[in-house]
UniProtKB/TrEMBL annotation:
GO molecular function, one term: protein kinase binding
One Pfam family hit: PMP22_Claudin
Stated family: Belongs to the PMP-22/EMP/MP20 family.
Gene that encodes it: EMP2
Signal peptide: 1-16
GO cellular component: apical plasma membrane; cell surface; cytoplasmic vesicle; Golgi membrane; membrane raft; nucleus; perinuclear region of cytoplasm
Topology relative to the membrane: Multi-pass membrane protein
Name of this protein: Epithelial membrane protein 2
Places the protein is found: Apical cell membrane; Cytoplasm, Perinuclear region; Golgi apparatus membrane; Membrane raft
TM helices/strands, residue ranges: 60-80, 92-114, 134-160
Gene3D superfamilies attached to this UniProt entry: 1.20.140.150
Cytoplasm listed as a keyword: yes
Keywords: Cell membrane, Cytoplasm, Golgi apparatus, Membrane, Nucleus, Signal, Transmembrane, Transmembrane helix
């Protein structure tokens, strides 16, 4: 049982780390001499311009990625609390619900980014960047991997019963 518990804790911490990296790092859309994320556009990998405040879809992405990271961390603390408080044989339902909400937030953010990153063309043309020649960066891919990890851990907590 200790091995299973250690695996669950490591899996959850890995999910949180993936969420932190994908939210913070500047590699959601990468191209020749530029990279973008949900916060800014960087060209020549050093000159950065923040995304316009008028771009409400990016504010939605920012908010849901931050919320997913916070929910994942809260779920971990709730899991630790429930680990010592729940009676034997009970399920970690609250932890599961919080983790599945984190999963939902990541999915929403990545889906909005997939749909709306093309609106960055206007800003890219202003900065004289060839935005269409870019590709999804590793932060975007990590966000989708974090989605899978949080979904799996949310289901694991739902199924998991506290045993001896």
């Amino acid at each position: 049982m200790l091995v299973l518990l250690a695996f669950i804790i490591v899996f959850h911490i890995t999910s949180a780390a993936l969420l932190f990296i994908s939210t913070i790092d500047n590699a959601w859309w990468v191209g020749n001499n530029f990279s973008t994320d949900v916060w800014k556009i960087c060209f020549n990998y050093s000159n950065c311009t923040t995304i316009s405040e008028d771009a409400t879809e990016y504010q939605a992405i920012q908010a849901t990625m931050i919320l997913s990271t916070i929910l994942c961390c809260v779920a971990f603390f709730v899991f630790i609390l429930q680990l010592f408080r729940l009676k034997q044989g009970e399920r970690f339902v609250l932890t599961s619900i919080i983790q599945l909400l984190s999963c939902l937030c990541v999915m929403i953010a990545a889906a909005i980014y997939t749909d709306r990153h093309e609106h960055m063309h206007d800003a890219a043309e202003y900065l004289q960047l060839d935005f269409k020649s870019g590709y999804y960066g590793y932060s975007f891919i990590l966000a989708w991997i974090a989605f899978a990890f949080t979904l799996i851990s949310g289901v694991m907590y739902l199924v998991l019963r506290k045993r001896k």
